[in-house]
Here is the input.
Amino acid sequence: MSYGGSSTYGNESGPRTHRALLAGHRIDYFGVDVRDGPNVDAVMTNPYRIPARSNSADVVLSGQGFEHIPFFRALAAHSRLELREACTDFPPQKGIWRDYRAIDGKAACWGDSVGVFRKPQRYPRLTMFAVREPAVWWANRVGGVDGIPLPRPVDGRERCGRPEPAVVPERTPTPTPEQVPAPERTPTPEQAPARAESAG
Here is the structure.
């Protein structure tokens, strides 16, 4: 069993997903995310609780998530996992500086960080349960960063970190009773003018 998110990566050949990248392997793939979307098999009702049994997966993939996690920690130390690899997709180096001008369609350095962790054979399950459960309970209780106020805008970057303003349709003012025209009235049969009928 493998868990993955619904992340979609774009390149010249079109969008790619975790599920598509693993399609040639003999695995059962189970996609989870905090919102429904492509390749999502289960929606997480709590952002820090995967809706699956513990120890039911051999591999867990998390893509494009670190920048959205307010409780970002030294994951290996906190979770007692072995850190196998860590890197960040930085632009190429030019002297002591990063060459950000070299970023183009081919060298698209996103700045993503990658961490590869492995659970050790002698994993302290009981200790980690006692640490993890209160931390997960508190993290889900606190929630995300929605309640944290944004800093004041910086000159030239007024929109940085701020959502698109909502487009509110223009409302026409409600007319006063004096401005409303009187409705046309259909005459009743008694008020209708008499019609002359010809016998032919």
